[in-house]
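Incident log entry.

Two folding requests arrived from the same account within the same minute. Monitoring flagged them as a possible duplicate submission, but the sequences differ. Recording both here for audit purposes.

Request one:
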Amino acid sequence: MARVAFITLGCKVNQTETEAMAGLFRQRGYTVVEPVEQADVYVVNTCSVTHLGERKSRQMVRRAARLNPTAVVAVTGCFAQIAPEDAAAIEGVDVVI
Protein backbone atom coordinates (compact mmCIF):
# COMPACT_ATOMS: atom_id res chain seq x y z
CA MET A 1 0.00 0.00 0.00
CA ALA A 2 1.30 3.46 -0.91
CA ARG A 3 2.25 5.82 1.89
CA VAL A 4 1.92 9.60 2.01
CA ALA A 5 3.29 12.07 4.56
CA PHE A 6 2.30 15.69 5.05
CA ILE A 7 4.44 18.51 6.39
CA THR A 8 2.40 21.61 7.18
CA LEU A 9 3.79 25.03 7.96
CA GLY A 10 1.95 28.21 8.74
CA CYS A 11 -1.61 29.06 9.57
CA LYS A 12 -4.79 27.19 10.40
CA VAL A 13 -5.87 27.45 6.76
CA ASN A 14 -2.86 25.36 5.76
CA GLN A 15 -3.68 22.85 8.49
CA THR A 16 -7.27 22.59 7.24
CA GLU A 17 -6.12 22.20 3.64
CA THR A 18 -3.69 19.46 4.67
CA GLU A 19 -6.48 17.55 6.42
CA ALA A 20 -8.59 17.80 3.27
CA MET A 21 -5.71 16.52 1.11
CA ALA A 22 -5.05 13.68 3.56
CA GLY A 23 -8.69 12.66 3.26
CA LEU A 24 -8.43 12.56 -0.53
CA PHE A 25 -5.30 10.42 -0.37
CA ARG A 26 -7.00 8.04 2.09
CA GLN A 27 -9.98 7.72 -0.27
CA ARG A 28 -7.55 6.59 -2.95
CA GLY A 29 -6.03 3.91 -0.72
CA TYR A 30 -2.97 5.67 0.66
CA THR A 31 -1.82 5.22 4.24
CA VAL A 32 -1.03 8.55 5.89
CA VAL A 33 2.21 8.35 7.89
CA GLU A 34 4.18 10.76 10.04
CA PRO A 35 6.54 13.08 8.14
CA VAL A 36 9.60 11.46 9.75
CA GLU A 37 8.66 8.08 8.27
CA GLN A 38 9.57 6.90 4.82
CA ALA A 39 6.76 7.55 2.37
CA ASP A 40 6.09 7.25 -1.35
CA VAL A 41 4.74 10.81 -1.50
CA TYR A 42 5.58 13.85 0.61
CA VAL A 43 3.29 16.86 0.46
CA VAL A 44 4.83 20.00 1.93
CA ASN A 45 2.19 22.67 2.56
CA THR A 46 4.32 25.79 2.76
CA CYS A 47 4.14 29.26 4.24
CA SER A 48 5.78 32.45 3.06
CA VAL A 49 4.11 35.06 5.24
CA THR A 50 7.47 35.79 6.87
CA HIS A 51 11.06 35.34 5.76
CA LEU A 52 11.41 32.68 8.47
CA GLY A 53 8.36 30.83 7.16
CA GLU A 54 9.78 30.76 3.66
CA ARG A 55 13.16 29.54 4.91
CA LYS A 56 11.52 26.77 6.95
CA SER A 57 9.44 25.81 3.93
CA ARG A 58 12.59 25.34 1.85
CA GLN A 59 14.19 23.32 4.65
CA MET A 60 11.18 21.02 4.97
CA VAL A 61 11.08 20.42 1.21
CA ARG A 62 14.76 19.44 1.24
CA ARG A 63 14.22 17.21 4.29
CA ALA A 64 11.35 15.38 2.58
CA ALA A 65 13.50 14.79 -0.51
CA ARG A 66 16.28 13.33 1.67
CA LEU A 67 13.96 10.99 3.58
CA ASN A 68 13.23 9.03 0.40
CA PRO A 69 15.02 10.20 -2.74
CA THR A 70 12.67 8.11 -4.90
CA ALA A 71 9.50 9.62 -3.41
CA VAL A 72 7.34 12.17 -5.16
CA VAL A 73 7.72 15.54 -3.43
CA ALA A 74 4.84 17.97 -3.92
CA VAL A 75 4.99 21.58 -2.77
CA THR A 76 1.74 23.42 -2.05
CA GLY A 77 0.70 26.50 -0.12
CA CYS A 78 1.80 30.12 -0.07
CA PHE A 79 5.41 29.63 -1.14
CA ALA A 80 4.30 27.48 -4.08
CA GLN A 81 1.84 30.19 -5.13
CA ILE A 82 4.09 33.19 -4.63
CA ALA A 83 7.33 31.72 -5.99
CA PRO A 84 6.52 28.60 -8.02
CA GLU A 85 9.77 28.79 -9.99
CA ASP A 86 11.81 28.94 -6.77
CA ALA A 87 9.87 26.01 -5.32
CA ALA A 88 10.38 23.95 -8.47
CA ALA A 89 14.11 24.71 -8.44
CA ILE A 90 14.64 23.01 -5.07
CA GLU A 91 16.39 19.69 -5.63
CA GLY A 92 14.01 16.78 -5.29
CA VAL A 93 10.78 18.66 -6.01
CA ASP A 94 8.56 16.85 -8.50
CA VAL A 95 5.32 18.84 -8.40
CA VAL A 96 4.40 22.42 -7.50
CA ILE A 97 0.70 22.97 -6.90
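Request two (distinct sequence, not a duplicate):
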Amino acid sequence: MKKILITRPMPQPVIDRASKLGNIVVRPKTTPLVQQEMISALQEYDIIVPTLRDCFSAEIFLQVNKPRCKLLANFGAGYNHIDVNAAKERGIMVTNTPGSVTDATADIAITLMLMTARRAGEGERLLRRGKWTGWHPTQLLGLHVGGKTVTIVGMGRIGKAIAHRCHFGFGMKINYASRSEKELPFPSKYFNNLQKALADADIVFLAVPGSTETRHLIDKNEFSSMQNHAILVNISRGDVIAESALIKALQEGEVGGAGLDVYEFEPEIPNALIQMENVTLFPHLGTASVEVRTEMGYMALDNIEQFMMGGKPNNIV
Protein backbone atom coordinates (compact mmCIF):
# COMPACT_ATOMS: atom_id res chain seq x y z
CA MET A 1 0.00 0.00 0.00
CA LYS A 2 1.38 3.39 -1.03
CA LYS A 3 2.19 5.90 1.68
CA ILE A 4 0.88 9.36 0.77
CA LEU A 5 1.49 12.70 2.49
CA ILE A 6 -0.96 15.58 2.08
CA THR A 7 0.96 18.62 3.32
CA ARG A 8 -2.00 20.82 4.37
CA PRO A 9 -5.58 20.26 5.55
CA MET A 10 -7.99 19.79 2.62
CA PRO A 11 -11.78 19.84 2.23
CA GLN A 12 -13.22 16.71 3.82
CA PRO A 13 -14.48 15.15 0.55
CA VAL A 14 -10.88 15.23 -0.75
CA ILE A 15 -9.59 13.51 2.39
CA ASP A 16 -12.36 10.90 2.21
CA ARG A 17 -11.50 10.01 -1.36
CA ALA A 18 -7.74 10.10 -0.73
CA SER A 19 -8.11 7.62 2.16
CA LYS A 20 -9.14 4.96 -0.36
CA LEU A 21 -5.88 5.25 -2.28
CA GLY A 22 -3.45 4.12 0.37
CA ASN A 23 -1.97 4.96 3.75
CA ILE A 24 -2.83 8.67 3.97
CA VAL A 25 -1.17 11.11 6.34
CA VAL A 26 -2.63 14.62 6.47
CA ARG A 27 -0.26 17.14 8.02
CA PRO A 28 -2.44 19.25 10.35
CA LYS A 29 -0.46 22.50 10.01
CA THR A 30 -1.57 25.21 7.57
CA THR A 31 1.96 26.59 7.23
CA PRO A 32 4.41 25.52 4.49
CA LEU A 33 6.77 22.62 4.98
CA VAL A 34 10.14 23.55 6.43
CA GLN A 35 13.37 22.18 4.99
CA GLN A 36 13.70 19.12 7.23
CA GLU A 37 10.05 18.19 6.69
CA MET A 38 10.57 18.19 2.93
CA ILE A 39 13.71 16.08 3.18
CA SER A 40 11.99 13.59 5.49
CA ALA A 41 8.90 13.46 3.28
CA LEU A 42 10.97 12.59 0.20
CA GLN A 43 12.58 9.77 2.16
CA GLU A 44 9.46 8.39 3.87
CA TYR A 45 6.54 8.74 1.41
CA ASP A 46 5.80 7.28 -2.01
CA ILE A 47 3.66 10.26 -3.04
CA ILE A 48 3.49 13.82 -1.71
CA VAL A 49 0.69 16.33 -2.31
CA PRO A 50 2.44 19.70 -1.82
CA THR A 51 1.01 23.14 -2.41
CA LEU A 52 1.94 26.83 -2.50
CA ARG A 53 5.18 27.71 -0.68
CA ASP A 54 6.20 24.10 -0.07
CA CYS A 55 9.52 24.98 -1.68
CA PHE A 56 10.97 21.81 -3.14
CA SER A 57 14.11 23.47 -4.44
CA ALA A 58 17.13 21.91 -6.13
CA GLU A 59 18.96 22.13 -2.79
CA ILE A 60 16.28 20.01 -1.12
CA PHE A 61 16.47 17.30 -3.78
CA LEU A 62 20.27 17.24 -3.59
CA GLN A 63 20.05 16.29 0.09
CA VAL A 64 18.11 13.10 -0.71
CA ASN A 65 20.25 10.61 -2.62
CA LYS A 66 17.62 7.95 -3.34
CA PRO A 67 14.18 9.38 -2.60
CA ARG A 68 11.32 7.00 -1.88
CA CYS A 69 8.93 9.57 -3.32
CA LYS A 70 8.17 9.16 -7.03
CA LEU A 71 5.37 11.73 -7.47
CA LEU A 72 4.76 15.31 -6.34
CA ALA A 73 1.05 15.75 -7.10
CA ASN A 74 0.89 19.50 -6.63
CA PHE A 75 -2.36 21.00 -5.32
CA GLY A 76 -2.63 24.10 -7.51
CA ALA A 77 -2.06 25.23 -11.06
CA GLY A 78 1.08 27.19 -10.21
CA TYR A 79 4.18 25.12 -9.43
CA ASN A 80 7.03 27.62 -9.33
CA HIS A 81 7.71 26.48 -5.75
CA ILE A 82 8.95 23.16 -7.18
CA ASP A 83 12.16 22.82 -9.15
CA VAL A 84 10.72 20.48 -11.76
CA ASN A 85 14.03 19.76 -13.49
CA ALA A 86 15.70 18.86 -10.19
CA ALA A 87 12.77 16.61 -9.34
CA LYS A 88 13.05 14.80 -12.66
CA GLU A 89 16.78 14.26 -12.10
CA ARG A 90 15.84 12.39 -8.93
CA GLY A 91 13.24 10.33 -10.78
CA ILE A 92 10.28 12.23 -9.36
CA MET A 93 7.30 13.14 -11.54
CA VAL A 94 5.47 16.45 -10.94
CA THR A 95 1.81 17.12 -11.74
CA ASN A 96 -0.49 20.10 -11.16
CA THR A 97 -4.19 21.02 -11.25
CA PRO A 98 -4.82 23.44 -14.14
CA GLY A 99 -8.28 24.42 -15.32
CA SER A 100 -10.06 23.98 -12.00
CA VAL A 101 -8.85 27.38 -10.80
CA THR A 102 -9.76 29.40 -13.90
CA ASP A 103 -13.19 30.86 -13.22
CA ALA A 104 -12.72 31.44 -9.50
CA THR A 105 -9.45 33.29 -10.07
CA ALA A 106 -10.96 35.41 -12.86
CA ASP A 107 -13.83 36.32 -10.53
CA ILE A 108 -11.37 37.53 -7.90
CA ALA A 109 -9.56 39.59 -10.56
CA ILE A 110 -12.81 41.35 -11.45
CA THR A 111 -13.61 41.86 -7.76
CA LEU A 112 -10.22 43.53 -7.25
CA MET A 113 -10.78 45.73 -10.30
CA LEU A 114 -14.17 46.91 -9.12
CA MET A 115 -13.17 47.43 -5.51
CA THR A 116 -10.14 49.48 -6.48
CA ALA A 117 -11.77 51.45 -9.29
CA ARG A 118 -14.88 52.28 -7.26
CA ARG A 119 -12.97 52.79 -3.98
CA ALA A 120 -15.13 50.20 -2.24
CA GLY A 121 -12.55 49.18 0.36
CA GLU A 122 -11.88 52.81 1.21
CA GLY A 123 -15.62 53.44 1.57
CA GLU A 124 -16.15 50.46 3.84
CA ARG A 125 -13.27 51.48 6.07
CA LEU A 126 -14.72 54.98 6.30
CA LEU A 127 -18.09 53.55 7.34
CA ARG A 128 -16.63 51.14 9.89
CA ARG A 129 -14.65 53.96 11.51
CA GLY A 130 -17.88 55.88 12.00
CA LYS A 131 -16.59 58.72 9.81
CA TRP A 132 -19.29 58.68 7.12
CA THR A 133 -21.33 61.87 7.30
CA GLY A 134 -23.81 61.04 4.54
CA TRP A 135 -24.03 61.13 0.75
CA HIS A 136 -22.85 64.12 -1.28
CA PRO A 137 -22.13 64.63 -4.99
CA THR A 138 -18.33 64.39 -4.79
CA GLN A 139 -18.03 61.58 -2.25
CA LEU A 140 -15.43 58.92 -3.08
CA LEU A 141 -15.52 59.47 -6.83
CA GLY A 142 -13.83 56.59 -8.57
CA LEU A 143 -13.18 55.23 -12.04
CA HIS A 144 -16.17 53.94 -14.03
CA VAL A 145 -14.95 50.74 -15.72
CA GLY A 146 -17.62 50.42 -18.41
CA GLY A 147 -16.15 50.93 -21.87
CA LYS A 148 -12.60 51.38 -20.58
CA THR A 149 -9.54 49.69 -22.07
CA VAL A 150 -7.91 46.74 -20.32
CA THR A 151 -4.55 45.18 -21.00
CA ILE A 152 -4.21 41.56 -19.95
CA VAL A 153 -0.65 40.37 -19.58
CA GLY A 154 -0.78 36.64 -20.28
CA MET A 155 -3.63 35.21 -22.35
CA GLY A 156 -3.86 31.67 -21.02
CA ARG A 157 -6.94 30.11 -19.44
CA ILE A 158 -7.27 32.74 -16.71
CA GLY A 159 -6.41 35.65 -19.02
CA LYS A 160 -9.13 34.55 -21.43
CA ALA A 161 -11.66 34.21 -18.59
CA ILE A 162 -10.84 37.73 -17.40
CA ALA A 163 -11.13 39.10 -20.94
CA HIS A 164 -14.50 37.36 -21.40
CA ARG A 165 -15.86 39.00 -18.25
CA CYS A 166 -14.48 42.42 -19.15
CA HIS A 167 -15.80 42.39 -22.72
CA PHE A 168 -19.22 40.82 -22.25
CA GLY A 169 -19.83 42.13 -18.73
CA PHE A 170 -18.58 45.69 -19.01
CA GLY A 171 -18.17 46.42 -22.71
CA MET A 172 -14.47 46.99 -22.22
CA LYS A 173 -11.88 47.09 -24.98
CA ILE A 174 -9.42 44.20 -24.76
CA ASN A 175 -5.68 44.54 -25.29
CA TYR A 176 -3.31 41.73 -24.45
CA ALA A 177 0.38 40.96 -24.35
CA SER A 178 1.52 37.36 -24.54
CA ARG A 179 4.09 35.14 -26.20
CA SER A 180 1.94 34.73 -29.30
CA GLU A 181 -1.24 36.07 -30.86
CA LYS A 182 -4.43 34.17 -29.98
CA GLU A 183 -7.74 33.52 -31.69
CA LEU A 184 -10.31 35.00 -29.31
CA PRO A 185 -14.14 35.02 -29.49
CA PHE A 186 -14.31 38.81 -29.05
CA PRO A 187 -12.56 41.87 -30.50
CA SER A 188 -9.05 42.31 -29.17
CA LYS A 189 -5.71 43.92 -29.92
CA TYR A 190 -2.46 42.00 -29.62
CA PHE A 191 0.77 43.69 -28.48
CA ASN A 192 4.20 42.10 -28.74
CA ASN A 193 5.63 45.06 -26.81
CA LEU A 194 4.70 45.03 -23.13
CA GLN A 195 5.34 48.70 -22.44
CA LYS A 196 3.14 49.80 -25.36
CA ALA A 197 0.39 47.50 -24.13
CA LEU A 198 0.63 48.99 -20.64
CA ALA A 199 0.56 52.55 -21.96
CA ASP A 200 -2.73 51.91 -23.75
CA ALA A 201 -4.67 50.67 -20.71
CA ASP A 202 -6.95 52.02 -18.00
CA ILE A 203 -6.82 48.68 -16.19
CA VAL A 204 -3.94 46.17 -16.30
CA PHE A 205 -4.39 42.53 -15.28
CA LEU A 206 -1.40 40.27 -14.65
CA ALA A 207 -2.22 36.65 -15.49
CA VAL A 208 1.15 35.07 -16.26
CA PRO A 209 2.60 31.98 -14.56
CA GLY A 210 5.27 32.42 -11.94
CA SER A 211 8.76 31.59 -13.22
CA THR A 212 12.25 32.98 -13.48
CA GLU A 213 11.19 34.55 -16.79
CA THR A 214 8.28 36.47 -15.26
CA ARG A 215 9.96 37.52 -12.00
CA HIS A 216 9.83 41.34 -11.82
CA LEU A 217 8.15 41.48 -15.21
CA ILE A 218 6.55 44.68 -13.93
CA ASP A 219 9.27 46.98 -12.62
CA LYS A 220 10.00 50.71 -12.61
CA ASN A 221 10.18 51.01 -16.40
CA GLU A 222 6.80 49.34 -16.80
CA PHE A 223 5.20 51.58 -14.18
CA SER A 224 6.56 54.64 -15.94
CA SER A 225 4.83 53.44 -19.11
CA MET A 226 1.39 53.27 -17.46
CA GLN A 227 -1.15 56.08 -17.38
CA ASN A 228 -1.31 57.85 -14.04
CA HIS A 229 -4.96 56.91 -13.50
CA ALA A 230 -4.43 53.24 -14.44
CA ILE A 231 -5.14 50.43 -12.00
CA LEU A 232 -2.94 47.33 -11.77
CA VAL A 233 -4.50 44.00 -10.72
CA ASN A 234 -2.32 41.00 -9.87
CA ILE A 235 -3.75 37.49 -9.45
CA SER A 236 -0.73 35.63 -10.85
CA ARG A 237 2.28 35.38 -8.55
CA GLY A 238 3.56 38.04 -6.19
CA ASP A 239 7.08 38.29 -7.58
CA VAL A 240 5.79 39.14 -11.06
CA ILE A 241 5.76 42.68 -9.63
CA ALA A 242 8.83 44.33 -8.12
CA GLU A 243 7.01 45.35 -4.95
CA SER A 244 9.36 48.20 -4.07
CA ALA A 245 8.82 49.69 -7.54
CA LEU A 246 5.04 49.37 -7.13
CA ILE A 247 5.13 51.22 -3.83
CA LYS A 248 7.23 54.00 -5.34
CA ALA A 249 4.92 54.28 -8.38
CA LEU A 250 1.87 54.54 -6.14
CA GLN A 251 3.51 57.07 -3.83
CA GLU A 252 4.60 59.25 -6.74
CA GLY A 253 1.26 59.01 -8.59
CA GLU A 254 2.63 57.14 -11.61
CA VAL A 255 -0.34 54.78 -11.34
CA GLY A 256 -3.80 55.30 -9.89
CA GLY A 257 -4.17 52.20 -7.73
CA ALA A 258 -3.61 48.48 -7.33
CA GLY A 259 -5.65 45.40 -6.50
CA LEU A 260 -3.48 42.58 -5.15
CA ASP A 261 -4.23 38.99 -4.22
CA VAL A 262 -0.57 37.88 -4.14
CA TYR A 263 2.64 39.40 -2.81
CA GLU A 264 6.34 39.19 -3.50
CA PHE A 265 7.25 38.02 0.01
CA GLU A 266 3.92 36.45 0.91
CA PRO A 267 2.58 36.39 3.59
CA GLU A 268 4.61 39.47 4.51
CA ILE A 269 3.00 42.65 3.17
CA PRO A 270 4.80 46.01 3.32
CA ASN A 271 3.21 48.47 5.71
CA ALA A 272 3.39 51.08 2.96
CA LEU A 273 0.85 49.09 0.92
CA ILE A 274 -1.37 48.48 3.95
CA GLN A 275 -1.54 52.22 4.63
CA MET A 276 -2.54 53.19 1.07
CA GLU A 277 -6.24 53.85 0.52
CA ASN A 278 -5.98 53.31 -3.24
CA VAL A 279 -4.80 49.72 -2.83
CA THR A 280 -7.09 46.70 -2.35
CA LEU A 281 -5.44 43.82 -0.53
CA PHE A 282 -6.76 40.24 -0.49
CA PRO A 283 -5.19 37.30 1.42
CA HIS A 284 -4.67 35.09 -1.64
CA LEU A 285 -8.37 34.38 -2.22
CA GLY A 286 -8.05 33.41 -5.88
CA THR A 287 -9.41 29.87 -5.55
CA ALA A 288 -10.99 30.19 -2.11
CA SER A 289 -14.33 28.45 -2.53
CA VAL A 290 -15.34 25.02 -1.28
CA GLU A 291 -16.27 23.86 -4.77
CA VAL A 292 -13.02 24.94 -6.39
CA ARG A 293 -10.70 23.67 -3.66
CA THR A 294 -12.52 20.33 -3.72
CA GLU A 295 -12.19 20.14 -7.51
CA MET A 296 -8.49 20.94 -7.21
CA GLY A 297 -8.09 18.14 -4.69
CA TYR A 298 -9.96 15.70 -6.91
CA MET A 299 -7.74 16.63 -9.86
CA ALA A 300 -4.61 15.99 -7.77
CA LEU A 301 -6.08 12.61 -6.78
CA ASP A 302 -6.87 11.83 -10.43
CA ASN A 303 -3.20 12.37 -11.19
CA ILE A 304 -2.25 10.07 -8.31
CA GLU A 305 -4.64 7.33 -9.43
CA GLN A 306 -3.36 7.45 -13.00
CA PHE A 307 0.22 7.29 -11.72
CA MET A 308 -0.51 4.35 -9.41
CA MET A 309 -2.16 2.42 -12.27
CA GLY A 310 1.00 2.78 -14.31
CA GLY A 311 -0.45 5.26 -16.75
CA LYS A 312 0.53 8.78 -17.64
CA PRO A 313 -1.21 11.41 -15.48
CA ASN A 314 -3.19 14.02 -17.37
CA ASN A 315 -1.34 16.96 -15.87
CA ILE A 316 2.39 16.26 -15.94
CA VAL A 317 4.47 19.45 -15.85
